[in-house]
Amino acid sequence: xxxxxxxxxxxxxxxxxxxxxxxxxxxxxxxxxxxxxxxxxxxxxxxxxxxxxxxxxxxxxxxxxxxxxxxxxxxxxxxxxxxxxxxxxxxxxxxxxxxxxxxxxxxxxxxxxxxxxxxxxxxxxxxxxxxxxxxxxxxxxxxxxxxxxxxxxxxxxxxxxxxxxxxxxxxxxxxxxxxxxxxxxxxxxxxxxxxxxxxxxxxxxxxxxxxxxxxxxxxxxxxxxxxxxxxxxxxxxxxxxxxxxxxxxxxxxxxxxxxxxxxxxxxxxxxxxxxxxxxxxxxxxxxxxxxxxxxxxxxxx
Length: 301
Ligand code: PLP
What we know:
Largest sheet: 8 strands, mixed
Strand content: 25-35%
Bound molecules: pyridoxal-5'-phosphate
Structural class: alpha+beta
Distance between the termini: 33 Å
Oligomer: single chain
């Protein structure tokens, strides 16, 4: 469509760096027709990738679990991703790598006949909650819409099965809230569109362990909490317990550690971002210059 307007960005497809507006897949690709794809999203902050190796590890694990192991080597992927960032001239970016099942020349229904397709792109860094709204925090609705069961789709394989999350977002908008958190059949909270969650009580932090993507920001928050001597349990988090959190926050590559200040319209604590949340958030951003947690885009080119 000629009149489509794209954000600034660049992509890599079929061996070439191209403008994001030229990055297109055939309509017969199973990634589009069947959501038969996996992906990962890393970010660049002030010219440095954050924990890129861990994102690539997860991507390799996901492609393997889907029986389409990625044929690119780690260093090749790094070069491609860095190339996308460089071509678009970003110092802060949202950087995605995707592998779809691809398609078979005869449109055979057997997925083994398809040739996987690898795509990467960089667009401007995106936020689940804009930084100017962080003081206000996330106003979240807990939905009765159930996240797809982990018995059906493995949530640790980062995937595009988002219709439950999108329906949940509309449920939240209809109820006057900013975003949503889905639950499981046992009424435990799980995850939202693009984020994991943490809840604080007197014994420390709890984050759901089953039925969720093992977010890399979630992992970072667990490690940072340990550095700060804060206890973290990875275990089921019932809705009622979540609603009585002393503090709560969401974690995502798209924005880091994001305070949750309202659950179903009721204030969390005093309705302001919590002290522990702020401490973890501060340390999270400090790690962006630590060479053990980040690497320069220029060094990968
Ligand atoms: N849960 C889901 C369903 C996601 O899609 C994402 C990220 O997009 C997350 C959690 C957070 O993961 P990460 O911290 O790796 O960005």
